[in-house]
Design goal:
alpha+beta, eight-stranded mixed sheet, single chain, 14 helices, 386 residues, globular, 31% helix, three-stranded antiparallel sheet, 13 strands
């Protein structure tokens, strides 16, 4: 039976639960806000099937043949409404134009994110932009995706690398099944996100109606968090100095333990596409830089290359050097290291609460704050070549 001796061994994908022939596995949330499998020993026959399907136990193959592009949608509204350059939207429109469907993460309430399926271009906007909160795969999602694929519907599924790996293992490889993974910084604690929501609603004395973690109100390079409240007020902070949630997320204070031990990277990914931000593209491809955002697109399969060829009239695109691309977006190849204060943070949180833990362990330096707010930080980085 599956047993989690170390929490970095489990991504929480849920594949073991749905594949168990005896329905002996359930997922229980721990004190940090992450769910892990728990086996009902009265039902379990110790057949070992859950261990065999576990994606963390799956032998990985070398899949280091790929092409990396910089892509910008020619539709400026799509580009502006996307996290980076709008590549996901153009790939998704290719699927929808052919009568297909697209699965991605949407806000199903102002503060709750979940995978949904869209089959109309008018609904595609719900899947745009990053949602920096855990959106777990539910049993119904696995069933639904498999049913669509087996029915012959052209189907695109997007998610984190571990989610894509789990869905591919469940559904299988089919000509009408397209997978898109996002280059993942890591999955933050859902419990901490909920604390963040409660705190901001209390501070603004109003309920939240919209959360945008990738607002470009200060440009793509200085993307920020923008929260809209029922009373009309807005909370706006550049993400690198947003003190109550994004600062801790970006400094790896409360990521899922398995994210620091993720093996699903560019050379092992089985996805058709990997999408990311093409940070610092101006260092090598100056003419292609766009202040509204540029997508980094890794095409890993022939299927992906054919789709890129089919959407070429809708995008501006250049093929780029792979080593440069991996250098400017390191999570394509590397895991983010666990913050050395992570355990202390959660201990403080359990004893004294969320706000005190955040203020103690996610402090923002005065110099960092000034350089970010004045817009000097990107300029200094460029001068230093970092």
């Amino acid at each position: 039976m599956i047993k989690i001796d170390k929490k970095d061994q489990c991504t929480g994908c849920g594949l073991c639960k749905i594949k168990c022939p005896y329905n002996a596995i359930s997922f229980i949330e721990d004190e940090e806000g992450f769910a892990y499998p728990v086996v009902n020993t009265e039902v379990c026959t110790d057949c070992g099937y859950c261990e065999r399907v576990c994606i963390k136990c799956k032998p990985l193959q070398d899949r280091s043949q790929y092409t990396i592009f910089a892509i910008i949608s020619k539709d400026k509204e799509v580009q502006k409404g996307s996290s980076s350059g709008g590549a996901f939207s153009e790939i998704a429109k290719h699927v929808l134009d052919r009568g297909g469907c697209v699965y991605g993460v949407a806000w199903v309430s102002p503060t709750k994110a979940r995978h949904i399926c869209v089959d109309k271009i008018d609904d595609l906007d719900r899947l745009r932009k990053s949602k920096y909160v855990e959106a777990s795969l539910c049993d119904e999602l696995f069933f639904d995706v498999q049913c669509r694929v087996q029915s012959g519907v052209l189907t695109l599924f997007s998610g984190t690398p571990c989610q894509v790996m789990a869905m591919r293992q469940y559904v299988g490889d089919h000509a009408n099944f397209i997978t898109v993974e996002v280059a993942c910084h890591g999955v933050p604690s859902r419990k901490i996100f909920e604390e963040f929501i409660k705190l901001t609603e209390a501070k603004y004395a109003s309920h939240i109606v919209d959360v945008n973690f990738r607002s470009k109100y200060r440009g793509w390079d200085n993307f920020g968090t923008e929260i809209t409240f029922e009373n009309g007020k807005k909370y706006r902070k550049i993400n690198t100095i947003e003190p109550y949630y994004m600062r801790g997320f970006l400094t790896n204070m409360y990521l899922r333990p398995s994210c620091h031990n993720c093996q699903f990277k560019i050379n092992t990914s089985e996805s058709d596409f990997i999408l990311a931000d093409y940070w610092r593209i101006d260092r090598k491809y100056t003419e292609f830089y766009d202040k509204e955002g540029v997508s980094l697109v890794v095409a890993k399969t022939d299927k992906a290359m054919k789709i890129i060829d089919s959407i070429k009239d809708n995008i501006n695109m250049i093929e780029t050097d792979s080593e440069f691309a991996k250098k400017v977006n390191s999570v394509l190849c590397c895991c983010n290291k666990e913050n050395e204060k992570r355990s202390e943070f959660f201990q403080e949180y359990s004893v004294n609460g969320y706000e005190k833990a955040i203020k103690k362990y996610c402090r923002i330096g005065v110099v960092n704050k000034i350089l970010t707010q004045t817009g000097l930080k990107p300029l200094i980085r460029k001068i230093l070549g970092r």
